[in-house]
Write a structure and sequence with these properties.
This protein is an alpha/beta fold. The protein folds into 2 domains: about 220 residues, Periplasmic binding protein-like II (D-Maltodextrin-Binding Protein, domain 2, 3-Layer(aba) Sandwich), CATH 3.40.190.10; about 200 residues, D-Maltodextrin-Binding Protein, domain 2 (3-Layer(aba) Sandwich). It has 19 helices and 11 strands. Strand 2, helix 2 and strand 3 form a beta-alpha-beta unit. The chain is globular. It holds the Pfam family SBP_bac_1. This is ABC transporter substrate-binding protein. Belongs to the bacterial solute-binding protein 1 family.
Length: about 425
């Protein structure tokens, strides 16, 4: 689940706005493309920020930008209708690489951007982090440019650690379990750990545990691999930690909002979650423990610390567009270093290495969170769910062993059943 976009989505009604005036003298695409560029974006903080800067782009480019801004569901509906029909009235499209990226690429909806990106020295494509780029690449072809990223980090209570005699947050998953148990024993009524528990909702956050145990959803040959020893150990650890050190009478349908509420109400010591939600924990208006929240890198498992580092949203060019050269000009600007820095200073994590290395790029983040994110960007994995066409169905399948582990059922048997069903889904998609 791409939590940043979910936390900021506004109205579900379409808002279509032609923003700004064409600069005097025209300009536009030398290859004959229209001077009017049609850009479809989702309701998001990134979108609001980019809209404010559009007059600058229009003046520089001589283009007029028409923005169609939609809620997430309406965006999906429009893409489903227009892209399937081969419509040419969308030039630039904001899309979710991990949710619909493979479907769009497989169906030929996304224009290839490989040459444009790599031959554009000013754009400096090498500056983009590798994991997010992996998610916008299909069959070795770049089909999108990542603009918003998320990483999984460890949220924790500094005061509870200090009370139990711990001077630093856990560096390993073994330490996390030990510390969670100790703090829970020292503070009756407070859980040692909380996280998502819902079958599909938990998959994205469970993924970092899976990778850190040395597993993945699919192996190197493309076969389902949620029944490997590494995967079974990850399921058992995640479920066991919640069963033994999680909230009393734990629910098995919690998404981020329920888990975050438990943490911000002071009812848990540790919480693994996407960094993009951090203000829910640090804002005194939303959190009873805002003054004692700390952040740390995802704890290392047997395979090291391997949290996800994903692009929740990317920009692509509609293959059916007759204005692709100008569409690339927009992406050059919107995903360029200057706009990425502006966005990140406004609280939207970007995918450019240089922006994370720039003190201005992390000035608005808590220092320990910025440090934790830096670790995630260096050794992160570029997906947080199975990379398939039927993402929702796949998440239900591979998420079932999470629920079974939490409730104390046979993890090995559940993983075997899930793997068989997941493999069938993979076979059907070939």
């Amino acid at each position: 689940m791409d939590v940043l976009r979910r936390s900021v989505i506004g109205t579900s009604l379409a808002v279509v706005a032609a923003l700004g005036l064409s600069a005097c003298g025209g300009g536009g695409d030398d290859s004959g493309g229209s001077n009017t560029l049609r850009v479809t974006l989702v309701n998001h903080v990134w979108t609001e920020n980019i809209k404010k800067a559009l007059p600058e782009f229009e003046q520089q480019s001589g283009l007029k930008v028409e923005v169609t801004q939609l809620g997430e569901d309406q965006l999906s509906d429009q893409y489903n209708v227009k892209l399937n029909a081969g419509s040419s009235d969308i030039d630039v499209m904001m899309y979710r690489p991990l949710q619909e990226g493979k479907l769009f690429a497989k169906n030929g909806y996304l224009a290839e951007l490989t040459d444009k990106a790599k031959e554009d020295s000013a754009f400096d494509f090498a500056d983009f982090q590798a994991p997010p780029v992996q998610a916008t690449t299909y069959q070795d072809k770049l089909v999108g440019v990542p603009i918003i990223t998320e990483q999984e980090v460890l949220y924790y209570r500094k005061d509870l650690l200090q009370k139990s005699g711990f001077s630093a947050p856990p560096k390993t998953l073994d330490e996390l379990k030990t510390m969670a148990a100790k703090i829970e024993a020292d503070n009756p009524g407070t859980a040692g750990f909380v996280a998502r528990t819902g079958k599909a909702a938990a998959v994205t956050q469970f993924s970092s545990f899976l990778y850190s145990f040395g597993g993945d959803f699919v192996d190197g040959s493309g076969k389902a691999s949620v029944n490997t020893e590494q995967a079974k150990q990850a399921y058992a650890y995640y479920g066991g930690l919640l069963r033994e050190n999680g909230p009393e009478n734990i629910s098995t349908d919690m998404s981020w909002s329920e888990a975050m509420a438990i943490f911000t109400q002071g009812k848990a010591a540790f919480y693994t979650e996407a960094n993009s939600l951090y203000k829910n924990a640090t804002d005194p208006a939303k959190s009873k423990v805002s003054d004692s929240v700390g952040f740390a890198p995802f704890p290392a498992g047997p395979a090291g610390s391997k949290p996800y580092n994903i692009p929740s949203w990317a920009l692509g060019v509609n293959e059916g567009s007759e204005n692709q050269a100008n569409a690339w000009k927009f992406i050059q600007w919107a995903a360029g270093k200057e706009q990425t820095l502006v966005q990140q200073k406004g609280g939207v994590p970007g995918a450019r290495t240089s922006v994370w290395a720039n003190p201005e790029g992390i000035a608005t983040y808590p220092k320990d969170l910025a440090d934790a994110i830096k670790v995630s960007t260096e050794n992160g994995v570029g997906h947080d769910r199975p990379l398939v066409v039927k993402v929702a169905e796949a998440r239900e399948l591979v998420g079932q062993p999470i629920v079974d582990a939490i409730t104390g059922k046979d993890v090995a048997g559940s993983a075997a059943t899930a793997n068989e069903a997941f493999q069938k889904l993979l076979d059907d998609e070939k």
